[in-house]
Amino acid sequence: LGTIAGGVLIEVEYGAYIVSGGILLFAFMGYITSLLIPKLGAEAPELRINKNPLKPAIEILGYARQNRPIFLSILGIAWFWFFGASLLTLFPTWCKGILHGDNLVATMFLVLFSVGIGVGSILTGKLSKGIIELGLVPVGSIGMTIFTLDLFFAGNPGIHLAHPELLDPDGLLSPQDFVSTWGGMRIVIDLFFVSVFGGFFIVPLQTMIQERSEATHRARVISCNNIINSGCMVLSAIILMVLPKMHVDTVQVFLLLAIANVLVAIYVYTVVPEFLYRFVAYIMTNILYRLKTKGLDNIPDKGAAVLICNHVTFVDWLVIGGTCPRPARFVMHHSFKDIPIVSRFMKRAGIIPIASAKEDPEILQQAMDKIAEELELGNVVCIFPEGMITKDGQLNTFRTGIEKIIERTPVPVIPMALVNMWGSFFSKNKDRKFFGRFRSHVELRIAPGIAPENVKAEALQAQVQSMLDEALAGRD
């Protein structure tokens, strides 16, 4: 609303005074509203505000760099503001000088950008289903790249040459005339979807730095992020002033932004594979299958826990990982290391290779040590106690390895059951077909946690079998 009002009011008599007064009025209203926010206790009451803002900013940046996912999320958010500030800076010059649109067309571009980000943010909340869905971040970067690239191709449609009858006495197009042409409508669609996918990109990153920062550092991490964002916005303005001197025109900047967006995405997703892993998991649980979860609240928000589940297909870990609200470390047979490309992906996703004592006692010991280490750090570990993928769709006997894990590191065990995965292409069903179970309904049932002193392999097997029987009865 402010974007629309600013563009319209600045054109009327005394417009500058009206806009300035409106800004002051809303600033005052914001201040009054802030006084009504309930006060909360300080997470770090001993912290003293330093009069020199540079030193604490450097210190908190050092803290953020110790947690690579948080640090790269901060850089990703800063890139978004660089990207967005560049577009907003380009709009007036691009609109009037190249597209021959009037000031209202430029205002329309700003509105499309603002509304698109709002729509993208709301959709992100809906698609995330109550968890931090990092799989939407690659979706966002892909969409931003595609539609920014199309802006480069559509950025100089020559509407004013093809339709001179639409121009006003000043040789400009109104918003109505601009969108009445295919070239103008194409630009409108591109701008809207660039910002929609921008919402997909930034919301999970913003949520991630809030959720994964320690409570005692969270506010400072967010403020540090804002400082970097501001710096990137200033940097974008400086670069846009330099590019014309290098004979780069306004339309070519869209191409440079699209290329830079690809490079940023490749770097982030290579260094922090969780983004790419969650992207693949999101596709698995929302496109290949239609996944329904029951009992997701039984997975604790904090603290160590072991998830156990029946093993039906080669992609069970992706289905569970795409549903679990926290990053989970999966324990899987070491043979995955012999699969080209896949082994690299799974290793970067934090998969813990394991073997039986007969196969390789050294790998087994390394796996047990790694599991204990992850649990001691307060992380979630998921294992498949059957030790193999079912060959007939039935539950195999649970091995006692789960008891040894809990005996060494006593944490709650959360039983889960994957329902209706048997028969899919990724199972060992001899009659499986790639598209035979495409978009089939599958379910992940999660039971309340079991205290470590009550963990027995036989009892866990009975619990999972009961969940499977209950789901089957309900489906019948």
Number of strands: 7
Helix content: 55-70%
Order of helical and strand elements: HHHHHHHHHHHHEEHEHEHEHEEH
Strand content: 5-15%
User: Structural class of the helices, strands and pairings?
Assistant: alpha/beta
Q: Can you tag this structure with a few keywords?
A:
alpha/beta; seven-stranded mixed β-sheet; 58% helix
Explained architecture:
The longest helix has 31 residues, at 68-98. The protein is 58% helix and 8% strand. The radius of gyration is 27 Å and the shape is elongated. Strands 1-7-6-2-5-3-4 form a seven-stranded mixed sheet, sandwiched between helices. It is built from 17 helices and seven strands. By secondary structure, the protein is α/β, with parallel strands linked by helices. Strand 3 (328-333), helix 14 (342-348) and strand 4 form a beta-alpha-beta unit.
Helices and strands in order:
Layout: H1 2-9, H2 15-34, H3 54-66, H4 68-98, H5 103-128, H6 136-154, H7 159-162, H8 175-179, H9 182-212, H10 218-242, H11 250-271, H12 273-288, E1 289-294, E2 305-309, H13 316-323, E3 328-333, H14 342-348, E4 352-354, H15 361-376, E5 380-383, H16 401-408, E6 413-419, E7 440-446, H17 457-475
Parallel strand pairs: 1-7, 2-5, 2-6, 3-4, 3-5
Antiparallel strand pairs: 6-7
Summary, kept brief:
This protein has 476 residues and is an alpha/beta fold.
